[in-house]
User: Fold these one by one.
Assistant:
Number 1:
Amino acid sequence: MYPNLPNTMQNILVAEDDRVTRTLLVSQLQKMGFSVVAVEDGTQAWEALQPEEAPRLVILDWSMPGIDGPTLCGLIREQKTYRYVLMVTARARKEDIVSGLNAGADDFLTKPVHGGELHARLRVGQRLLELEETLGSKINQLCAALEHVKQLQGMLPICMHCKRVRNDQQIWERIETYIEQRSNATFSHALCSECLEIYYPQEAKKLSNENEPPSQKAASSL
């Protein structure tokens, strides 16, 4: 009857004290592909939301024994885990809707619940939850990346002759060692052309001859 829902976010909690309404909701949700946890009052709902693996989609009746819907919404919003809360109520006054939204509800449905509208609202809830998970994952990746980023800043004493630098412990060390310990940079040692001529003149001359164009080699042999 309904299109398949994504494989994630298919667990849902239903808190409804009226047995007939609760049975109808459970039947509709199961046809949509949800795995349903159904309770009959707000206190049971709050207990069901304590485990880490508790559903993140929640349908609450406004008026329930124990903890009513608006009060339960406020408690849910104090949890670290974001949950999409859909309030089901016979109340249709704007004042009641505003009150419920201020308490923490994400959306409202009036009784009797229409299956198609319920499905559409829950698909919105799934998209919001998936977006929240994606953003949370990106934030965690960014925090992990920042932990590996080290910045070099401030005045750094460097010897004018050997070019060693003085670290925070007042120890002189090679500049490449200092940089490698404080950044993600690594060094591959080589020789610049000037140092090659100063310290290895024979190798520099040999290398220069090898790189000399054939025309110049022929002219120098005459």
Note: The longest helix spans residues 115-147.
Number 2:
Amino acid sequence: MPLAVVTGASRGLGRALTLALAERGWSLVVDGRDPSTLAVASDALHAAGAPAVHAVPGDVADPAHRHRLVAAAQSTGDVDVLVNNASHLGPSPPPALADYPLAELQRVYAVNTLAPLALTQALLPQLLAAGGRVVNVTSDAAVEAYPGWGGYGSAKAALEQITAIMAAEQPTLRVYAFDPGDMRTQMHQDAYPGEDISDRPEPGTVVPALLRVVEGDLPSGRVRAADLNDPVRA
């Protein structure tokens, strides 16, 4: 049975994806910062039919937590897919770069850039053994200059370059930067405090495109959900 490690799986896109994988018979190693929210999500994965679920609460920026995630994966088998979904917006509302607190910026980079690379490094032997793939969840803020998004966007831009170089250095591994587009998530709400974001699509609408990345035969590279969901471009 295939095994996926998915970070940030207690809510939003991570939860929607893992529920879909559970229904398809995947075993899962998942994490989230809030233990109670993660426990509820884990129960839902069991109910959805996942053969095995290892829920590891903690912060992906914490090396000890990453070690526990890797140990859980090693106890289950080779890793077919690592989905680096956990992200950190930074201050809310996002400040201009001229006023960005550098300590907060370090935190944004620790979660959005360094943690995905660290997990990929740690799980690389299992990924290579399985002929697996890495999916780094990115954003259009990585390629567009949105005022106020300098911290988050630059961290995701760095993650995209890491993704591209990892793909070039590991040709037997499929490595993707997946841009889901705008979604109705808590992080997006935090980016626009007090605004109504009900017009944004639910994370579940992105899952079919993400499943094509996780289970399909797309070549390594940057992938936009909007393109995969567009019958003309797909």
Note: The two ends are 28 Å apart (CA to CA).
Number 3:
Amino acid sequence: MTSIEKSIDVDVPISVAYNQWTQFEDFPQFMSGVEAITQIDDEHLHWKVSIGGVDREFDAEITEQHADERVAWKSTSGPEQAGAVSFYRIADDKTRVTLQLDWQPEGLVEKAGALLQIDDIQVGQDLKKFKELIEAQGMETGGWRGDIDRAPDATGR
């Protein structure tokens, strides 16, 4: 399993950064390799990606979502991956966005990319594109303020 964690500070209020991140169908504007995301319902997404010449489709479930704090997901089909993005208020008009991603590389190209940390570089570049997008817009294109609680684990926590 490969793990990546990257952060970036964006010069917008926390609600603006969070609201934009909930617009999953807009991800292709700042995430390279993401061709399309279809939001099926509040908790389910269908992804189409093309990374390093490898095309994949998979479904994902939002496992936790709390306004202005966190969005977490995991794949339910296709390549194994899970992630979370957290939002931290730095000032009234500045927010730290931290993305954590865990994924299982498949095939030679993906394993080589993970070994050479190309995926780390790409995640950093994608966060920079998010920063440029949200700061240029100055406001979000929409937002979902609902709440999804994390399911308890096997111990009931």
Note: The domain at 2-137 is CATH 3.30.530.20 (Alpha-D-Glucose-1,6-Bisphosphate; Chain A, domain 4).
Number 4:
Amino acid sequence: MRFRDRYEAGQLLAQELESLRGCKDALVLGIPRGGVVVAYEVAKELELPLDVYITRKIGAPHNPELAVGAVASDGTLVLDDDLIRRMAVSIDYVHAETERQREEIKRRLAAYRGSRPEPEFRDKTILLVDDGVATGATVLASLRALNQHELAELVLAVPVGPPDTIRSLSQEADRVVCLQTPRIFWAVGAFYSDFGQTSDAEVKELLQELQ
């Protein structure tokens, strides 16, 4: 099955999360950029507020799409030590790329949230939403960072991801909702008919509508 686009994926995810409709202590967090589009549909369908949780991939040298780790907005750092060792990635590179991504997180927070403070997470049911996972590094950093708060429940909702990754992420969340776990998996975008880039302007517009 291929999703038409991120909006359709979000609508289908919302159907699996119907039990949370209108929950007064629930909050949907989208991982920018593409994950915010999916999260928008989840939040709209379930009548819940929407915000962002920014985590940035630490890409491998000469292959930025391959994650050797990820850093969350609160500074939580997750590294794939085995991959770093196999690819002979230097510690200096990891440090420099981590710092670069932290600066990008600051830029995006300012762009998306402006002067609004970060939402309160304590005692909330958090629905963390992305448009799909491959290695899962970005989502893993997000889950570990969010788990440092005293949450009522942490739910990960994604349209698609490989079985091993979804099993691994299930250890970090109270519940995982994933619509498809294809055994043959090469890229998240392969499971969408339209997987175009999401702009900062689109993210801001969606957030403003549901905040």
Note: Strands lie at 26-30, 50-52, 55-60, 63-72, 77-79, 125-129, 153-160, 175-180.
